[in-house]
Amino acid sequence: MSTRYLIIVNREPGVGALAREAIDLLLVAGAFDLDPAVLFMGRGVLHLTRSRAHGDGEPRPLDALGTYGITRLYADASSLRHAHLDHAPLDPAATVVEGDAIGRLIAQSDVVLSA
Amino acid sequence: MPFGADVKLAIAVYGAPTSSEAPYSALRFARAARERGHEVLRVFFYYEAVAIANALVVPPQGERDIGAEWSAFGREHGVELVACIAASLRRGIVDSTEAARYGLAAHNLREPFMLLGLGQFIEMAANADRIVTFVE
Lengths: 115, 136
Known about the structure:
heterodimer; A: 3 helices; 5 strands; B: 35% helix; 19% strand
């Protein structure tokens, strides 16, 4: 069985290098055909709303995930509630997961990277 | 979960030496791991932690020179110290090769650090039994 990767994004989007570098790590994992799952937690869930730190219609680094074959996106439900995004459409679409499911997601992964 | 014997470890460091404990905590962890016989495959510095690899940092007298301490650890234990090349270039840290490539007047990568890409970070994670990340 191939190695299962999970990348956890905690960093919020913004104009600085840090947010961009977090997404770079995702894209490189995708470029290596690792088929990583991605879990957005904490302030990282703000990546899933287009209006945050990005103008509508502007390209975002996150928009390239599909190009890199990264399709398994998850968002922590409690982080979404904390950010008042629990009723907002997520862009890109992500599966919302509660605490127990997050534990299973991590347990099922061979390599967990924080970005 | 405690580590068993002869665990292959990879270490990732994200936090800046000037505003976080990450490089200091990571060094203590790396030393302790080696003392207990574990293998440290590589230490990868990403985000603001690449500042550790800047040879032109001069700490005030009486302050720790964490960059020099990391260099000594790498030499003593034969552990690869890697700074992410993209993050380093963004922050003005270059080796002689990159200085020549971009026509820069000088280079400042601390020995024995290397500049490598995120692909090597992924490879490191795949080859280790455990990857331990020091964020802040």
